[in-house]
Structure formats: C-alpha cells, structure tokens
Design goal:
Layout lengths: L13 H6 L11 H12 L5 H13 L12 H12 L1 H4 L6 H8 L6 H13 L3 H8 L8
Amino acid sequence: MCVLSTHQLPLLDDNHRWEYGLTTVADEMDRSTLRRLVLRWAAGELTEHEVHATAEQLWEADQWPDYGDADDRSIAIEVLAQLDILNHQFITTQDVPALVAFLDTAPGQAADGWIQWRQYWARMDWDQRRRQLSGNPYYIT
C-alpha cells in the first residue's frame, strides 16, 4: 500500500486536503488525487511550479514500490514520478489529456494503458517542445 506521510503538502492546507481526497491522517495515493491535480493545472488554477512542488513532496513522502506494467497501481506511481520531474521531462498542460487518459485506464487494463502512454511520448516532437519551452526558465532546456 502506498501511504502519504501526514506532513504539510505544498498547496494543500487542511481545507484543500479534502479537495484532493486527502485527510489529515495518512491516505493512500490514488489516481483521482493526481487527476484533480493535473486538471487544476490545465484550468490555470496551478502553475507548473506548484504542480511540480506538490508532486515532489508526495514523491518524497514515501518509498514507492516498483510494480510491473500489468499492475494497476503502477499507473499512479508513474504519473507521480513524471510530475516530480516535469521540468526535466518537458511536461506541460498540453500533456494533461494524455496524463488523464493514462490515469483513467480501466482496472485490469494497465498493460494496455502503458502501451498507449509510451506511444504518446514516442510521437512527441521533442525539438518542437524544447523550442516552445526555451523561453520558460522553469524548464531545463
């Protein structure tokens, strides 16, 4: 079971913990928590810096197991790991539909979700993305 520590998360005071599905006691990390985070980012409620800081603290709150691609639990951990390094991976709000689609992978279909996830990134024009982000000092271009 993946459990969050109870220390304060960036952007998540006690009032916002309920919004993310987290209480003041440790709760399991799940896909819906990450979905709400990236959707708020896409809606302009959060910046990439805030998403990154939140993901970083969530990531560092625990030692996450290495589940295989066929394990449904691997999906939330992969998304969290990518958000933790989003400025290195050039992940932007343009990628939110792919993030949400991956998070919405049906139970028991994790292996297929991983195939779609990898295909999305394989189709990425990385030179174009790098050029798009070159003016944004937050991203490591």
